């Protein structure tokens, strides 16, 4: 979930998962799909008599040409959204804007169900907002803080019936969980499943495995669905109510959110209103996605229900929180446990919400992603305005991500334009700072104890410089898909030349040690890649090693054919012959092992339901095979080197025997470094 690698359909599913998990590390091509049915151009509009728009009040600081009124907003959205859906191959969307405690606009675009020609109804159609669900969970946590049952700065083990191990003697607190600084590694198993039979209870999900803590608490943002689920479990324990019951009675009922639920499968009364999820509008529908860590992302809700939740928070927690509690969530004090930002001056985490400040306005919100549903939630807190949009398709090349971001930026530019102007750093200093940023970096949201450490290796981010001394990061694309360039506007602060996003570096003793950018800075950042796992040298060496093994194996049948053709005997006998043949066998097994791992990962993530205990046996078997093959290849290759050099064979054979041994050592190093033989089924 927010929140970035078969068959054609499985490949696309795998691509969408890794995009969310690792910020778009890779993409796999898909097959052609049937022609798309055209979505209706006329939006489905909420009954304005049921939710009347207030008389617009234009704040003096609104310096743009457009006041935020219902007529102007509706006309703008009706021109913006239909084209965006068609161009992006997106089935449907709901957009809701609130202002001054009222629904200003609620619009449905496209189809909730293409096959049945059911349009999106902003009142009743349920979308899956993914990680925006967390805001409901965090609200529940803060209700229990109000009740005196949770202390934000106490060891959470005091609320649990199992124990979270300390990190260097340090426990974790609810505040750290809410700011994603508890230090947990990423968890993928049992994340999403199409089979409701695979859904675990909160207790079973959490107790089956505790992800390793890889950062000291409070030091590094690393987004964690597991930790959010832990918070939901704590709410369940301290309140004495099942989590689903709690949010229905304490949040949904007081706000009149009748078309909202965390329950999976959906309650019978709500199931007919559920929007269907599509990879693209032109492709077949996919089943309802069950989120196992459900406090982190299982919410199904209508656009207008989300407007009610948004209004409650914009109006100081009205109906669900005390004003002082809501204020703490939205703008937590800046002190030693609440730093302004772990990479100043970028946006920071509040308590559950994260900043999405723009054009000098204070904005907080959240993003959310399942495979097919993509959502953004933004509240302009000082202006009393909220924007919510959700899509039921990923769209062409993940276009839903692009549209939701562009809609937020364009909405802000239209109704809350900036009067600020960026500065510039002199060319010499900018060039020096950009050069200091160059190198390889890894995302703080990563797995470290299982084979999913491969994701970090494959997703290492390279920072380079452009011809004018600007930063260039190939993996960070602009809205049009082009590589973004970043110019320095203040010391160690850059802005994308094609948008609003800023990028900043943390400098210690004159050396850049980490950086992030506004889109992820509250909950993720980039640290330098340790030299021992740098893809700049390890990836070419790995490819070369695989080539050596493949050639070694292929030379065996090729050599046998040539010898048979010319009736030439094999020039080695006895132990040397056995070592010769064993080396070729092991080389072939090394190549087969590479293919097996590629197939295993593709199979596991091609259908996320595979990420369960049902696949533990093959996962364990491939790790056992990895240990046997990589260790065995090194031993046999060393034996072959010894005999080859002792027998006085030609220098070419001696050299090749050494290359095979080196290739075997590379394979063993890679397997150990990236946990390919960690002998674990937890990931």
In whole angstroms, the N-to-C terminal distance is: 16 Å
Helix content: 25-40%
Low-pLDDT segments: 3-41, 46-63
Mean pLDDT: 90
> Radius of gyration, Cα only, in angstroms?
28 Å
What profile does the largest beta sheet have?
8 strands, antiparallel
Structural class: alpha+beta
Strand segment tally: 21
Apparent shape: globular
| Strand content bin | 15-25%
The helix count comes to 16
Give a concise summary.
The chain is an alpha+beta fold and 683 residues long.
Structure description:
The protein has 683 residues and is an alpha+beta fold. Helix content is 38%, strand content 15%. It has helices at 8-22, 70-88, 133-146, 174-178, 202-207, 225-239, 243-255, 303-314, 323-330, 399-415, 427-437, 453-458, 535-566, 574-606, 616-646, 651-673, and strands at 44-45, 92-99, 102-113, 118-119, 126-127, 192-193, 260-261, 290-291, 300-302, 354-355, 363-369, 374-380, 385-391, 439-443, 461-465, 471-477, 483-490, 493-496, 502-508, 511-517, 526-528. Strand 18 (493-496) and strand 19 (502-508) form a beta hairpin.
Topology of this protein?
Elements: H1 8-22, E1 44-45, H2 70-88, E2 92-99, E3 102-113, E4 118-119, E5 126-127, H3 133-146, H4 174-178, E6 192-193, H5 202-207, H6 225-239, H7 243-255, E7 260-261, E8 290-291, E9 300-302, H8 303-314, H9 323-330, E10 354-355, E11 363-369, E12 374-380, E13 385-391, H10 399-415, H11 427-437, E14 439-443, H12 453-458, E15 461-465, E16 471-477, E17 483-490, E18 493-496, E19 502-508, E20 511-517, E21 526-528, H13 535-566, H14 574-606, H15 616-646, H16 651-673
Helix pairs in contact: 1-14, 2-10, 3-6, 3-7, 13-14, 13-16, 14-15, 15-16
């Amino acid at each position: 979930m927010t929140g970035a690698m078969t068959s054609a359909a499985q490949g696309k599913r795998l691509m969408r998962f890794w995009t969310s998990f690792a910020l778009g590390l890779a993409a796999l091509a898909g097959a052609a799909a049937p022609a798309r049915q055209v979505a209706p151009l006329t939006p489905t509009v909420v009954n304005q008599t049921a939710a009347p728009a207030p008389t617009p009040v234009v704040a003096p600081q609104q310096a743009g040409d457009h006041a935020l009124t219902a007529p102007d907003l509706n006309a703008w959205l009706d021109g913006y959204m239909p084209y965006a859906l068609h161009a992006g191959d997106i089935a449907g969307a709901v957009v809701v804007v609130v202002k001054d405690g009222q629904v200003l606009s609620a619009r449905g675009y496209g189809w909730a169900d293409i096959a049945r020609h059911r349009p999106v109804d902003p009142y009743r159609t349920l979308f899956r907002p993914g990680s925006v669900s967390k805001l409901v969970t965090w609200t529940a946590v803060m209700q229990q803080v109000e009740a005196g049952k949770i202390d934000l700065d106490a060891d959470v083990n005091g609320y649990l019936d199992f124990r979270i191990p300390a990190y260097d003697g340090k426990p974790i607190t609810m505040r750290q969980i809410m700011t994603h600084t508890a230090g947990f590694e990423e968890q993928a198993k049992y994340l999403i499943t199409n089979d409701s039979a695979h859904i675990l209870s909160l207790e079973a999900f959490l107790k089956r495995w505790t992800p390793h803590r890889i950062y000291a608490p409070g030091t590094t943002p690393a987004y964690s669905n597991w930790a959010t689920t832990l918070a939901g479990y704590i709410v369940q324990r301290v309140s004495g109510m099942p989590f689903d019951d709690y949010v229905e009675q304490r949040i949904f009922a007081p706000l009149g959110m009748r078309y909202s639920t965390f329950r999976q499968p959906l309650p019978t009364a709500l199931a007919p209103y559920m929007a269907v999820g599509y990879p693209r509008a032109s492709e077949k529908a996919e089943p309802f996605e069950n989120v196992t860590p459900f406090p982190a992302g299982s919410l199904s809700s209508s656009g207008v229900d989300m407007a009610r939740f948004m209004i409650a928070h914009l109006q100081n927690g009205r109906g669900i929180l005390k004003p002082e509690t809501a204020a703490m969530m939205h703008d937590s004090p800046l002190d030693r446990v609440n730093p302004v930002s772990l990479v100043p001056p970028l946006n920071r985490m509040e308590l559950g919400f994260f900043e999405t400040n723009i054009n000098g306005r204070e904005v907080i919100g959240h993003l959310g992603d399942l495979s097919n549903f993509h959502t953004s939630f933004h509240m302009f807190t000082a202006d009393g305005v909220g924007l919510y949009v959700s899509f039921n398709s990923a769209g062409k090349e993940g276009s839903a991500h692009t549209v939701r971001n562009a809609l937020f930026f364009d909405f802000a530019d239209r109704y809350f334009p900036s009067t600020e102007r960026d500065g510039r750093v002199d060319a010499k200093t900018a060039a020096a700072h950009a050069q200091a940023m160059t190198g390889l970096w890894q995302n703080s949201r990563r797995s470290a104890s299982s084979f999913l450490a491969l994701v970090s290796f494959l997703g290492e981010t390279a920072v380079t410089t452009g011809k004018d001394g600007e930063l260039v990061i190939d993996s960070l694309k602009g809205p049009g898909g082009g590589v973004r360039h970043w110019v320095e506007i203040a010391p160690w602060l850059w802005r994308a030349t094609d948008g609003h996003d800023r990028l900043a570096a943390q400098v210690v003793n004159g050396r850049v040690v980490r950086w992030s950018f506004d889109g992820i800075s509250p909950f993720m950042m980039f640290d330098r890649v340790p030299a021992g796992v740098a893809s700049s040298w390890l990836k070419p060496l790995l490819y070369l090693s695989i080539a050596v093994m493949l050639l070694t194996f292929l030379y065996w049948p090729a050599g046998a054919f040539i010898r048979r053709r010319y009736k030439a005997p094999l020039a080695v006998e006895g132990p040397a012959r056995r070592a010769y043949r064993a080396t070729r066998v092991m080389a072939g097994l090394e190549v087969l092992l590479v293919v097996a791992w590629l197939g295993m990962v593709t199979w596991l993530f091609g259908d996320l339901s595979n990420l369960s205990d049902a696949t533990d046996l093959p996962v364990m078997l491939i790790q056992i095979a990895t240990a046997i093959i990589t260790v065995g290849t090194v031993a046999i290759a060393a034996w072959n080197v010894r005999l080859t050099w002792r027998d006085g064979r030609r220098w070419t054979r001696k050299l090749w025997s050494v290359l095979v041994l080196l290739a075997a050592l590379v394979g063993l190093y890679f397997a150990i470094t990236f946990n390919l033989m960690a002998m674990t089924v937890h990931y």
